[in-house]
């Protein structure tokens, strides 16, 4: 049994606080509410903590009031690990489907989320702070040691103009003669993928993408997929390739 197994039933929280032996960690008001009112956590209980840098630690609840909870760090149970970089560029979609996309993309190991306004984008705004809260919750629940970076909404042309010329962008296309992502990933690392909106890329967007030397197209298959299905199936395929390699 590993140290993690010993504490697997303990609540798990992401904190923006250094984690080292003997330190005291004071939780946010939202975390205090969660522990006291939702989890009914008693004094002396163990809480798992991670910050994306210092690995995973166990802290014991020392101080507890209706507004404050402080933890005393007991021991490190997991060393920090870095996930392979994979950025997802996607078009905002309707609420419940986007919530599903954000949660599952986080579980599948995405390291950065880039919402992009495209010609056929139906939802023209995105609440960055809400997405940040979603990725934290999904990271806590999925046992990962990092939290994805959430970027501000940008336009399609802004994204292309600011793209680092030494990086490749892999763009998913439906019902077009393109290589499969599996065949690409077996030959080279794939770290940035773009999925179009409902209705697909416009003809102008496809022309702009095709003109860029850093763009590589891959096939999404012969059927028509929802935007979230295309993104998540792509991430799952990349995960499968990495598991096979390891």
Summarize the structure.
The protein is α/β, with parallel strands linked by helices and 246 residues long. The chain has helices at residues 3-6, 29-38, 95-107, 128-142, 156-161, 181-185, 203-210, 227-245, and strands at residues 12-14, 24-26, 46-50, 56-64, 69-78, 87-90, 112-117, 149-150, 154-155, 169-173, 192-194, 215-219.
Folded structure, characterized:
The protein has helices at residues 3-6, 29-38, 95-107, 128-142, 156-161, 181-185, 203-210, 227-245, and strands spanning 12-14, 24-26, 46-50, 56-64, 69-78, 87-90, 112-117, 149-150, 154-155, 169-173, 192-194, 215-219. The chain is of the alpha/beta class. It has 2 domains: 3-78, Ribosomal Protein L25, Chain P; 87-245, SPOUT methyltransferase, trefoil knot domain (Alpha/beta knot). Strand 7 (112-117), helix 4 and strand 8 form a beta-alpha-beta unit. Helix 3 (95-107) packs across helix 4 and helix 3 (95-107) packs parallel to helix 8 (227-245). The longest helix is centred in the C-terminal third of the chain and has 19 residues, at 227-245. The two termini are 23 Å apart. The model has no long low-confidence stretch (mean pLDDT 92).
């Amino acid at each position: 049994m590993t140290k993690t197994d010993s504490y697997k039933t303990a609540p798990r929280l992401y904190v923006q606080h250094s984690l080292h032996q003997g330190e005291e960690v004071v939780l946010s008001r939202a975390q205090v509410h969660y522990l006291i009112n939702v989890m009914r956590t008693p004094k002396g209980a163990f809480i798992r903590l991670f910050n994306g840098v210092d690995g995973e630690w166990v802290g014991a609840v020392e101080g507890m009031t209706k507004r404050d909870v402080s933890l005393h760090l007991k021991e490190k149970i997991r060393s920090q690990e870095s996930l392979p970089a994979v950025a997802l560029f996607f078009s905002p979609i309707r609420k419940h489907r986007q919530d599903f996309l954000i949660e599952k993309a986080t579980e599948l190991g995405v390291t950065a989320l880039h919402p992009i306004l495209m010609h056929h984008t139906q939802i023209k705004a995105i609440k960055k702070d809400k997405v940040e809260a979603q990725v934290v919750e999904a990271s806590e629940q999925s046992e990962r040691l990092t939290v994805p970076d959430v970027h501000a909404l940008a336009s399609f042309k802004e994204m292309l103009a600011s793209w680092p010329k030494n990086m490749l962008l892999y763009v998913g296309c439906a019902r077009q003669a393109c290589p499969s992502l599996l065949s690409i990933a077996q030959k080279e690392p794939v770290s940035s993928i773009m999925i179009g909106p409902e209705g697909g890329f416009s003809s102008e967007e496809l022309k702009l993408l095709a003109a860029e030397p850093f763009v590589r197209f891959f096939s999404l298959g012969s059927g028509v997929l929802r935007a979230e299905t295309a993104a998540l199936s792509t991430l799952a395929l990349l995960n499968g390739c990495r598991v096979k390699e390891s």
